[in-house]
Amino acid sequence: MSAVAVDPETPAPDPGLAASVIDRAAERIIEARQRGAPVVLCHGAHLIRNGLAPLLGRMVEDGWLQHIATNGAGSIHDWEFAFLGRTCEDVEEYVSSGQFGMWEETGRNIGLALLVGAFDGLGYGRSIGRMIAEERIDVPAREELLAALEAGACGDPGAAPRAAAAADLLDAMDNSGLESGALDLPHSHSSMSIQAACFRQGARFTVHPGIGQDIIYPHPLLNGGAVGRASMSDFLLYADTISGLEGGVYLSVGSAVMSPMIFEKSLSMARNLVCREGGALEDFLIVVNDLAESTWDWSRGEPPMDHPAYYVRFCKSFSRMGGELHYAGMDNRAFLLNLYQRLAGAS
User: Which of 47, 72, 115, 316 has its CA 20 to 30 A from that of 171?
Assistant: First the structure.
């Protein structure tokens, strides 16, 4: 699949029945930014495959989005577009020949970026964004890694996590023949990458993978310790953003499982702290965008058990979180083009 970037100025298609939801989202986003509350967009991998990363980059640059989150596949597709200008995934053909997920460049470069990023204390999204934006990976000197191991062994406060990351990186270097130093890695299509855009702009980009779900896992440089450290850092960063969502907006685009699951855990953590201090975390807007036709007005709350919409799990999960919920059943290109152009027209 070749990358066809969606031009933010492309005339937006008629949003149909979702027009009122998009209008409400734009209204609340403008209000959120006026009061300094965050706007978060959590998306699935097909948003990247649909060429929407540059549009999201524009929304980050214009200050409409402060945090973007995705799953492992979303990060991988974004990297492949930046590196190759395309992303290839013929599942049936390559599984039949035992080659699916065996791409050397994807597994090696993402695996190494996470190993080095974890040692540097970076999360998953920032590790990949840095690799794309800087077009290189700087592998630390062995002396620096050994010094980190020694500091961890001596019980220096806070040194143990970095020592563990150093051990993983040293092991990878020994097993792969990798040398210390700068590894130049041109990304000829980096303008296609939302991870790079967020890295450059200082916006938060977090990745929330499922172990074994993505094509990078067969590669020997994909280290479970590095993945765990980087993705845990990202989850805590995401939870920190959700803790400040009062007055903010959460957009869930094409993520039926990951987005509602990480949101409910983070919101519970945040409310645990807020309730201790006698505060509240209730004033926020959630807009869910997916392709399924809407058979229920989710702003009315959860449907009864005898209604088919009751079993639309991702909307049902969000409906239990409080705040204001709306569903936009439409293609994510149409949704985001309409939303962006309403925001741009109001600025």
Answer: 72
Write down the H helix ranges in 11-67: 19-35, 45-49, 53-61
Pick the CATH number of 16-140+180-346 from 3.40.50.880, 3.30.559.30, 3.40.50.1820, 3.40.50.10690: 3.40.50.10690
Query: Three-class SS of residue 33?
Result: helix
As a whole number of angstroms, the distance between CA 323 and CA 282 comes to: 5
| pLDDT value, residue 3 | 52
Q: Is the dihedral of CA 144, 228, 51, 86 positive or negative?
A: positive
Domain ranges of the chain: 16-140+180-346
pTM: 0.95
Handedness of CA 203, 184, 124, 314 (dihedral sign): positive
- Two tokens, residue 335: 């949704």
C-alpha to C-alpha distance for 49 and 44, rounded to whole angstroms: 10
Res 92: pLDDT: 87
Report d(CA 1, CA 240) in Å as an integer. Answer: 35
DSSP codes joined into one string, 245-301: -TT-EEEEES-SSHHHHHHHHHHHHHHHHHHHTT------EEEEEESSPP-S-GGG-
Q: What pLDDT sits at residue 1?
A: 47
How far is the C-alpha of 68 from the C-alpha of 65, rounded, in Å?
7
- Token pair, residue 114, equals 């996470």
CB 252, CB 260: distance < 8 Å: yes
Determine contact, residues 38/244, Cβ cutoff 8 Å: yes
